[in-house]
């Protein structure tokens, strides 16, 4: 089994509670609006990181707009804004799509594909608590979890 940590919308703030929630994961996916190289460095101290560029990142961090991650024989597609998804994930062979942007955590399975948005782990913009997510990969199957951070 592989466990992937999922984080998004840090906007330059890497909370200790987020790092604690991600401890022990095999890989971290950051779905954009990273904010600074220090955030990526902090996450890399926990596990290898695959990150994409959010609408607030610009090209300075050198992040791609999308990435494909293969873990345990399954493929996941990562992008910042789900509304910019320009492919049919199932037809393309993806079992999961990771996104951010909305600052609202969500977890759903549609047409056999897991959609996970971990919400925002960065500065608060509403009364919602910061959050991260996990994706568990085992035997070619995936399942997701959302984790509310106590800050």
Total DSSP helices: 2
SSE pattern: EHEHEEEEEEEE
| CATH superfamily grouping | Metallo-dependent phosphatases
Q: Mean pLDDT, as a whole number?
A: 96
Q: How many domains, as an integer? A: 1
Give the proportion of residues in helices.
under 10%
* Structural class determined from secondary elements: mainly beta
Provide the CATH architecture.
4-Layer Sandwich
Radius of gyration: 14 Å
In short:
By secondary structure, this protein is mainly β. Helix content is 10%, strand content 37%.
Description:
A hairpin with a 2-residue loop joins strand 7 (106-110) and strand 8 (113-117). The protein has 151 residues and is mainly β. It has one domain (2-148): Metallo-dependent phosphatases (Purple Acid Phosphatase, chain A, domain 2). It is globular, with a radius of gyration of 14 Å. The longest helix has 8 residues, at 37-44. The strands form two sheets. A five-stranded mixed sheet has the order 3-2-1-9-10, with helices on one face. It has a five-stranded mixed sheet with strand order 4-5-6-8-7, with no helix packed on it. Helix content is 10%, strand content 37%. It starts with a strand and ends with a strand. The relative contact order is 0.23. The chain contains two helices and ten strands, in the order βαβαββββββββ. It has helices at 16-22, 37-44; strands spanning 2-7, 27-30, 49-51, 66-71, 74-79, 94-98, 106-110, 113-117, 131-138, 141-148.
């Amino acid at each position: 089994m592989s466990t992937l940590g999922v984080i998004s919308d840090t906007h330059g703030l890497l909370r200790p509670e987020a790092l604690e929630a991600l401890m022990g994961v095999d890989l971290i996916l950051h779905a954009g609006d990273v904010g600074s190289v220090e955030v990526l460095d902090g996450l890399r101290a926990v596990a290898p990181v695959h990150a994409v560029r959010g609408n607030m990142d610009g090209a300075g961090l050198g992040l791609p707009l999308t990435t494909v991650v293969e873990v345990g024989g399954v493929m996941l597609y990562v992008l910042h804004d789900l509304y910019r998804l320009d492919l049919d994930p199932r037809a393309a062979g993806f079992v999961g799509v990771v996104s951010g942007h909305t600052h609202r955590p969500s977890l759903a399975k549609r047409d056999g594909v897991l959609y996970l948005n971990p919400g925002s782990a960065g500065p608060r913009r509403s009364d919602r608590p910061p959050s991260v997510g996990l994706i568990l990969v085992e035997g070619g199957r995936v399942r997701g979890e959302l984790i509310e951070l106590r800050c």
